[in-house]
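Quick one: structure tokens for this chain, please?
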Amino acid sequence: MGGGIAQIIMKIVGMIFGEVGSGDFNFVVARDATIQRGEYVKVKHEFYGWVLAKVGEIKRYNETYSLNAITGVSIPKAGVEERIIASARVIGYIDEREILKTPKMPFKPGENVYEADAGIIKRTLKLGNTSGIYLGILDGHKENIPVYLNPNKLVQKHVSVLAKTGAGKSYTVGVLIEELIENNVPVVIIDPHGEYSSLKNYNDIPKELNLMERFGIKPKAYKNIVEYSTQMNINPQCDKKLTLDITRMNYGNFLDILPIKLSNVQEGLLYQALNVVKSYGRYTLEDIIRVLDEDDSKSKYRLITNLEILRDSKIFEGKPVKTSELVRKGIVSIINLRGVAPEIQDIIVSRLSTEVFEDRKLGRIPPLFFLVEEAHNFAPERGFGSMASTKVFRTIASEGRKFGLGLCVVTQRPARIDKSVLSQCNTQIILKVTNPNDMRAISQSIESFTPELEDEIKQLEPGKALIVGEAVEQPIFVEVRVKRTKHGGGSIDLVRKTKKKDKTTGGLEGLLKKLFSRY
């Protein structure tokens, strides 16, 4: 009896016809069914039971308006109705060991295609979790199926967030950070434009407040945000001045960050000067410059000039910020680089990431999530510039997971980020991308990337994302939830609409109003 009731409840949306492969099939859509590209369907297989599939291309067919009918070669039959033909890609079924498998035998032509219920979708795609990183709801189903990602997989394995400008990249990252805070994960953010300060503020945008009930969330402001800047005059809202610890730098570190290539003589002078100042215990850049200035060699002047540029940036001036202060459970540390010159940004990011990685390896700080906005500027692909930070990011990408340092690279130019860094990201969150070079870089970093996925990425609406990799069982499309906090990364309107002037203010009447308004 129970099986009969289930059969009545299930809605038939079509019937399989024609040649059927083991990985895909075509079906005629039932006349009373409405189905869209991207929706989930299920089919009962004679050997494997219920199998989940996803609708792909949909086409309308009507013989009345065929080419032959238009040219008059053949006469269409009266009463011919329009038919809708859809293709579907097989996702698979769950076996007795709870493993997702794809059928080795195709479906029989004539099998009914049913609307997939939330139960089979959750079980097949492993979306039954009710805790973790709540990114949004599954796209392609009428019910609001929440998508939760495993926070351990995100931190232990690396993540990339890729999208063209305006596709919702920074907004999605904001949602991700909110969820990491909720899960008490330490986060360090490299923020070149100062757009993550708004995590401290409630979301008060009316349109987004109206959507919160649908996503099951409420406005919230996070107080456990600590913002650092080397330019407190430019970023007065920041909590603390960021100062790097020069005493943690060795001879090789100086060679990496200095903008000039030193001659053998200059390298020798720097090496000797460092040996002298290290005997002081605590020392400054001014101490190094002073020691060099006492040397008789004429080669010292160019070296001193470059050290003075570092000194004038003031990134080593003051009490150094320790990694144990930056990386704390439940705390998000934002490194606000707004107003900092690109070459100085590179030095800051290179030094911070190096110190964090070294201290995490030694267990001095807890496991963390290290997020880098505009990552293509700090780990550029060969041919797009050379940065001191590239070397350390390659190391973190290849070794960080062993030590609990999760890297998240965020970029609007996937083609310009170092391929060895991008390829090490085991989970990709991809929003709309249209540039062919960027699409090629994405396809090279994702196993089993298909032309179908490429087409869907190009057509993604703002706020919808493809998630693929370690964090999900199968590639899925998600409608990213609204933020609890205020978004700080929106574009600024250059031209604003103004109210039309009242026609009555023109001519004589307008002139009189202006005259009498003075009295």
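The longest strand covers residues 49-61.
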